[in-house]
Amino acid sequence: MKTLLVLLSIAGLALTVIPSVLVFSQGLSLETHKLLMLAGMLMWFITAPFWMKEQEL
Length: 57
Known about the structure:
Helix 1 runs antiparallel to helix 2 (30-52). The mean pLDDT is 91. The protein has two helices and no strands. The protein has helices at 2-24, 30-52. Keywords: Membrane, Transmembrane, Transmembrane helix.
């Protein structure tokens, strides 16, 4: 389960970095960029806290 959450988090981060590069190189429209960035942000903020939280002692 943790591995799946980590993979989804990394995919979310990729959806925030890769579209920005594609917009800069004019390979992606601004509207598509906004949608991909929103999806990546939601993926990151929904999945990351579950595997990054500290263990209780």
